[in-house]
Design brief:
This protein is 43% helix and 16% strand. By secondary structure, it is an alpha/beta fold. The structure holds iron/sulfur cluster.
Length: 456
């Protein structure tokens, strides 16, 4: 039996990187370190002693993590690295290694970006690109000794072999630490399957990194339902979020049917694409089974931009999807971006105006993040459109202008009388809106130069 310490380190207070992209949070958003959670469960299944620490959610400093490592004396330390905090990750690894002699394993999407360059840091004993759970187990079991491992995509059999992540959360984490403004609190999340079944949007992190290659891989639906039943019975939760990059209409229907058949009472949400695979009938069933919110990438109100970003939907399909979801009584959390190929002042203004007309429950506006490995990054680099900090800077607008337009968009959308009127008819929403408005006002007052992403 080996001892493994699995760490989601904190870069700075309010900075999160266990979601689909790293960001500053304005409303205390914290997603679970889901991949590390599955990895912890798998190592424990094979009788290794594990500690999972989410320093981001627990606001733990590197000094505290080092203190924990000194006490626990891990044989292996698994660190989920971040783009912005990489030099801190290296320093944390060096100190843990120096004080405990632990081997260091780096994991996460950022391990797919220039792995050779990352490995110039001698402190890294192993670097795993891709889904890292089984390869971490192989390393710890002494079955793989390569310094850089390109993990193959997990098969359905392997996904079914992974333990229930909700049990891992309950054992290692404080569920109260995890909050997302569009979800009921407390919540847990889980994968019913991995990888977006579309997977082609040029800016999207996971399909080009940790879930690169292969297709949408799914768990046995009965196992998913068993886990949901267990979580509802044993955890003090109000909601379950399905972390599949996007839950297809077909998969959502299967899930809804199962929940209804078993009579499970729980609110649930997921990511979805506005590609109309969720028919009105499926959406109705989803609602009946407890689905209350879908997180959807709208991105732009301009069809030419949607085409250029390879979104695979049009403004028309997105409008129809919104109408159908509204009829079914399901809320939409709508994501938009300003700064994709072809963006101008005019297209950005059209997007803001369009967003205001859509009947959605929450908004998110952000400039896209150029991650290496994505076609968006390559396009920016090839055209000389990256600024000194690595942010997008187009001839038509620089990064600061994108940030300013996103702030403007959020202000206009949330203070839009039609939006306020709509939300006032949802009594359960009032508290959430007041809280979001408070955080947003605080953010506007104190944070001028960056913009939150992902679920704020
Ligand atoms: S639909 Fe969403 S998850 Fe899928 S590739 Fe596009 S942005 Fe990524």
């Amino acid at each position: 039996m080996m001892k493994a310490l699995l760490i989601n380190p904190q870069y700075e207070k309010g900075y999160i990187h266990s979601a689909r992209w790293d960001s500053i949070t304005i409303s205390g958003t914290h997603w679970y370190p889901i991949f590390l959670g599955y990895c912890t469960g798998l190592l424990e299944k094979y009788n290794h002693e594990c500690r999972l620490v989410d320093a981001e959610a627990e606001n733990k400093t590197d000094a505290q993590l080092i203190g924990m490592a000194e006490q626990f004396k891990p044989d292996f330390t698994v660190i989920y690295i971040s783009q912005r905090g990489f030099s801190d990750n290296i320093s944390l690894a060096e100190q843990i290694k120096e004080k405990t002699g632990s081997k260091i394993i780096f994991v996460g999407p950022w391990c797919s970006m220039e792995p050779e360059k990352l490995l110039e840091n001698k402190v890294i004993d192993y670097l795993i690109s891709g889904e890292f759970e089984f390869e971490t187990l192989n390393i710890i079991n002494g079955k793989n000794n390569s310094r850089h491992i390109q993990a193959a995509r997990l098969t359905s059999e392997q996904l079914n072999e992974l333990p229930w992540v909700t049990k891992v959360y309950a054992k290692h984490l404080n569920l109260k630490n995890y909050k997302v403004s569009s979800l009921w609190h407390p919540f847990v999340d889980m994968f019913t399957g991995r990888k977006c079944y579309w997977g082609r949007c040029i800016f999207c992190l996971w399909p080009f990194t940790i879930l690169k290659g292969g297709s949408y891989t799914v768990r046995n639906i009965d196992d998913v339902l068993d886990e949901i039943e267990w979580a509802v019975k044993n955890l003090p939760i109000k909601e379950i979020f399905m972390q599949d990059d996007t839950l297809s209409g077909e998969r959502a229907e299967l899930l809804a049917d199962g929940i209804l058949k078993r009579g499970i009472k729980i609110a649930w949400s997921s990511y979805a694409r506005g590609d109309l695979t969720h028919t009105p009938e499926i959406l109705k069933k989803m609602k009946q089974s407890g689905c209350h919110c879908l997180h959807v990438g709208f991105e732009s109100g301009n069809d030419e931009l949607l085409k250029r970003m390879n979104k695979g939907v049009t403004t028309k399909t997105l409008e129809t999807f919104t109408e159908w979801a509204n009829k079914a009584g399901i809320d939409i959390h709508a994501d938009f971006m300003i700064g994709l190929p072809g963006e101008t002042e005019e297209t950005a203004r059209n997007t803001i105006n369009w967003a205001k007309k859509l009947k959605v429950a929450t908004y998110q506006f952000a400039p896209p993040k150029p991650y290496m490995c994505t076609p968006y990054y390559t396009w920016l680099k090839d055209n000389g459109y990256l600024d000194k900090e690595g942010n997008p800077s187009l001839p038509s607008m620089n990064y600061q202008r994108m940030v300013d337009l996103c702030k403007k968009a959020l202000t206009e959308c949330y203070f839009n009388p039609a939006f306020i009127r709509r939300m006032m008819f949802k009594p359960r929403e009032v508290l959430r809106i007041v809280r979001s408005a408070f955080y947003f006002a605080r953010y506007m007052l104190f944070k001028k130069s960056d913009l939150p992403n992902e679920e704020d």
